[in-house]
Amino acid sequence: MSLSALSDAFLHLATPATLAYGAAAMLLGIVFGALPGLTAALGVALLTGLTFSLSTEHTLVILLCIYVGAIYGGSISAVLTNIPGTGAAIATAWEGHALARRGEAGLAIGTAAAASFAGTMLGLCALALATPVLARAALKIASPEITLLSLLGLFLVGSLNGSGTALKGWMAGLTGLLISTVGLDAISATPRFTLGSSNLLGGMPFIPAMIGLFGVAQIVESLSQTRPAQIHSLPRVLPNWGTLIKHLPVTIKSGLVGIGIGITPGVGENIAALLAYSVARRNSKEPGRYGQGSYEGLIAAETANNACVPAAVIPLIALGIPGSPVTAILLGALLLHGVQPGPLLLVEHPAFLAEIIAIFALAAVLLLGLALLLARPISLILHVPSAILLPVVTTICVIGAFSLNLSHFDIGVMVAFGVLGLVMRGGGFPTAPLVMGLILGPFIETNLRRTFLLSDGSLLPFVTRPISLALTLILLLLLITQTGWWRRFRESRRPC
Questions:
Q1: What span, in angstroms and rounded, lies between the C-alpha atoms of 468 and 355?
Q2: Is residue 181 part of a domain?
Q3: Is residue 410 part of a domain?
Q4: Nearest of 266, 432, 360 to residue 64 by alpha carbon
Q5: Could you give the number of structural domains in the chain?
Q6: What DSSP state is assigned to residue 360?
Q7: Which of 21, 28, 417, 488 is 20 to 30 A removed from 64 (C-alpha atoms)?
Q8: Is residue 488 part of a domain?
């Protein structure tokens, strides 16, 4: 990627329409993140349906800006109400609300905005440097490696799901894989599990399914919840630059943690924030301040979760494998616009990476500006009664599901997945593995069958090729370490 391509990409974005789309999407993303339950995944899924008629460039600006904005926006409700607006803001709530109770709510929100900006820029650097290298390496990767990488991403997101057991995560991922087989067989074009409906010949409608899974389920769940009292006073929103400079090493370390988690297929921002927070606390000179209102912990969490966002796009562009559940939805949006991510994308569209980098840079600037300027007005949205907010969100969900294909069937899919989401939440099953199973299912099936066709049904390609062998061993190790036998073995080895 040349500097001229990057400068052309920046100039191409410098139009009133693009900047307006970006600013509106960033504001909407912050609002979605700030309101508990309206997650980044729901925002990207909704806007995918509503932006289908726009150009690919404008669609990417809108979706990436709402993604970046929502990950930061979760910190606003985390600080003011002690309820993280998104899962990525859990660690932010631990420190941010303690700071708010000390009368430093505005400072905490401003510091979170600055840390989010720094994290996005660090992730952006990783995106620029790592994507071409990984894409060139990916040209040497064949079907066995793609199959194993997809399975690895699915197993990882199933294992690191926060439900307390990997089994439930894996069951959710398997459910997603099974649902992904609905439609015409990719090789023989034989209808599978369509129940005689022509609407399912093209597969399960992905965007309506995501709107139902993340939107409808959350709306119904929110009907029985009351909002807690929040901190009202925001006397100062601008961060203390001395504090930011003091914690610069933590910012860099946390950014690297977020980048590492983002590149790992299927894990996502929640794990990045919690891991960076844990690392920062373990290495802190003042660990006793954690939980009592530590700016160091706040910066670590917010830097990592935003650094994870551009980093999660790296495997999406280079391998065609999403790095997080939200980028799985982004993959669906790209496919709707005729863009096929993977090793050949940068060969066929050399300017694509420069365009993505420019969009993320624009998103980082918009995030910092809007977060600091509009922190007070955005915080007032938390006062909107649920009786007003939830019907509006429900209407938007229905419009988003219907607008993609102008089909009432898609609304039915949305409702069905909303019910599925409620059942999964009630049973303690995470939804992220199901999303990854839905999006990775066709990759796994197609490449697995291609491997068997080329090897006459043999499993040897998975153990005779160096990269395949390494991935197979990692998968086996992951399976072993999640068994009860392994946990009992570790317990027996601990000194009494």
A1: 32
A2: yes
A3: yes
A4: 360
A5: 1
A6: H
A7: 417
A8: no
Decide if 122 contacts 292 (C-beta within 8 A). Answer: no
List per-residue pLDDT tens for the chain, 496 residues long.
567 778 888 888 888 999 999 999 999 999 888 876 677 887 888 888 777 778 888 999 999 999 999 999 888 888 887 777 777 787 888 888 888 888 788 888 889 999 999 999 999 999 999 988 888 877 777 788 888 888 887 777 666 555 456 778 888 888 988 998 888 887 777 888 888 888 888 888 877 887 787 777 767 776 666 555 555 556 667 778 888 898 899 999 999 999 988 887 767 788 888 888 888 888 888 877 887 888 899 999 999 999 999 999 998 888 888 877 788 888 888 888 888 887 788 888 888 889 999 999 999 999 999 888 877 777 666 666 767 767 777 787 787 778 767 788 888 888 898 889 888 888 888 877 887 788 778 878 888 888 888 888 888 888 888 888 888 898 888 777 776 666 666 666 666 5
* Pick from 289, 274, 220, 343: nearest CA to 93: 274
Residue 40: domain span: 3-483
Burial 259-297, CB ≥16 within 10 A → b, else e: bbbbbbbbbbbbbbbbbbbbbbbeebeeeebbeebbbbb
